[in-house]
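Subgroup meeting minutes
Present: P.N., E.W., G.H.
Scribe: E.W.

1. P.N. recapped why we're keeping a running log of single-chain structure predictions: easier to compare across weeks, and new members can see raw inputs and outputs side by side.
2. G.H. added today's entry (430 aa).
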Amino acid sequence: MDPSEPSHVTGKFFIVISHSFLFRAQHSTHALPTKGGTRYSDHIDLQEVEALASLMTFKLAIADVPFGGAKGGVKVDPRKLSEGELERVTRRYTMELIKKGFIGAAVDCLGPDMGTDEQVMTWIKDTYQNVKGETDINSEGCCTGKFIRQGGIAGRTESTGLGVYYAIRELLNSKSFMQKVNGGELGIAGKSFTFQGFGNVGYWAAKFVEQDGGRVTTIVEWDCAIHKEDGFNVEHVKQYMRENKSLIGYDDCDEIEIKNPTSFLEKKVDFLVPAATEKSIHKQNAERIQCKAIFEGANGPTTYAAEEILLKRGIICAPDLLVNGGGVTCSYFEWLKNIDHVSPGKMTKKFDENSQLKLLSLMGYTEMDDQVKGADEIDIVYSALDETMTNAVHANWQYAIDNDLNFRDACLVNAMMKIYNHFKECGISM
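Output recorded in log:
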């Protein structure tokens, strides 16, 4: 295709803007805006974008986030570009989306993904505002994952990892789940965990698990894996990784593996959290995985063939569509903040403080001013994410039990039924 001639195609299941190296696909517009990440990768193609857009539809439905699914990206390796080149690519991509009507707070809200960060999302927002800002009062909501000063929201950085933690916490406190996996006493405390990937998702999930009493005994990165039976100090490991850009040379551990780091996925542990790349657990290593359950923090870390083997062995996979939904849920909160034009809690924080102080005064407690405060933005984000993830986990696990389905199939069937019922209520489906 001629790079100077982008096309706008409406298919049976997708509305697609396709360029030789610029892509955006909207899978379902049953709810608007559509929502999905923006991926910068030299391996991206139209089929991948369409597949990921369809998965976004189901992920959003599982968490009851009222968006349709979308996905997009640019076929480029951002590590090989200067900051100026990356900015020009981003602004050109945004202009193509604007020309085709594929971006806007009411149309299609972009988010970060592989190869994109707060800076890229802020460039997208700035480009859109410069073109559409005078006619679109909600222009700031055209994308999420921005710098906080540019309309972002507190808690977005850790939201995916925090969502993974909430999913783990709720399932490990479920009697039926723990009986199914033979997990012992309820709760995270005392359980051992392996984390594959110690980037944004894996680090934050491990940090919250550690705070709740769990032992992070194995950490697997792309170039190195480390193991410590008594459990790592998560913050100490992360600090070493920040300073050295790798875990190679980390000495506060019992074992270290450089030649074949992924072999440490096979170490005996209570629960495994793959939070790195796709297809980490496959038919070649599934027989050797020694855990009671898997919580998928990454997208697609377990292949279909591997899950068939794991299920026969009694190992349950809590699917990515449910477990790593914290990021897009927090993006929904950021979008709400942008179209509300006010930070969550700003209108009520002082009123809540004064109400609590007045109640304490009536009870005879005085001079409590320094101990009482209303909810900040991050308090509300954490609370709302907790509520969303908790409801989604319990609803989908119960759906699996009631319908005698494995966990992944239950999540997909439940999501599809929600979308089907939406169309049925609108008179479109029968």
